[in-house]
Design brief:
The chain is mainly beta. The chain has helices at about 10-15, 175-185, and strands at about 20, 25, 30, 35-40, 45, 50, 55, 60-65, 70, 75-80, 85, 90, 95, 115, 120, 125, 130-135, 135-140, 145, 150, 160, 165-170.
Length: about 190
């Protein structure tokens, strides 16, 4: 009986660069350039997600339905214990929207100005539903980004951020660090 997620044998056939144990990828997710994607242990990628380009996922990660990770060459790194809520978009590559060049991949590169920059989502960060992260951004450790936020520049650790563009509104509690220690002892 087939489940909603690829079996171990099917994961091997996808051709991922590397993957760990207990990796659950929905049969309805789309992966481009699988050989550039690394996945740690205990990772779940839900329905209708798109993963494309250089992507490195740590362990204990959840990527909820309808998320898009567009790593390009610059890449996207999600460290351990991170979460993307549904409908998030993370861009390691984007067109220049200034009007000084043409946009979209159907045009020759000489007419385009593609912006690339690595995106890193540090350990214990959670990105709220409908949020967008643009190229060349680091989400500091332990950040919480509220729903429908735009992260267009790097943000500092252990803050709660909301808005377009996002702004820090308060500190995030670090209780989860003790819970992580307890969890890892039991694992």
């Amino acid at each position: 009986m087939k489940t909603s997620f690829y079996s171990e044998e099917e994961l091997k056939e996808i051709g991922l660069c590397a993957y760990g144990k207990n990796v659950l990828i929905s049969r309805n997710a789309t992966i481009y350039g699988a050989d550039k994607i690394k996945i740690g242990d205990n990772v779940r990628i839900d329905d209708f997600c798109i993963l494309s380009g250089n992507i490195s996922l740590g362990s204990h990660i959840h990527i909820a339905a309808y998320c898009g990770l567009f790593g390009g060459e610059a890449g996207i790194i999600m460290e351990d214990f991170t979460t993307l809520s549904s409908r998030c978009a993370v861009y390691g590559v984007s067109d220049d929207y200034s009007g000084e060049s043409l946009t979209n991949p159907m045009l020759p590169d000489k007419f385009r100005n593609v912006i690339e920059g690595a995106v890193t989502i540090k350990k214990h960060s959670i990105i709220g539903t409908g949020s967008t992260i643009l190229p060349n951004v680091t989400i500091g450790e332990g950040c919480s980004v509220g729903s429908m936020s735009l992260v267009n520049k790097s943000i500092d650790a252990w803050g709660i951020y909301v808005g377009i563009p996002c702004k820090r509104i308060k500190e995030r509690k670090k209780t989860l660090l003790e819970l992580e220690k307890e969890f890892l002892k039991e694992e």
